[in-house]
Write a structure and sequence with these properties.
3 strands; alpha+beta
């Protein structure tokens, strides 16, 4: 069992979208095509772990337009 300080903070789709500065519909589309951040489903509710969003965003860091990552 996880201790309270080890538990992830889970965000709703609109909250995650605000954090990434994208539209919530964009996150929904990314879930369908599979190129967005990891997400979880709890009782039919989609949630994003804060650390997954941070990791996903960091993986998209580029230094120039020719940088393919």
């Amino acid at each position: 069992m996880l201790k309270e300080h080890q538990m992830s903070q889970f965000l709703t789709t609109p909250e995650a979208a605000r954090m990434l500065n994208v539209n919530a519909r964009t996150l929904e589309r990314w879930r369908i095509v599979g190129n967005g951040p990891k997400y979880r489903v709890f009782g039919g509710l989609v949630r994003y772990a804060l650390e997954d969003l941070t990791e996903w965003a960091a993986a998209r860091t580029r230094q120039s337009t020719s940088d393919q990552g």
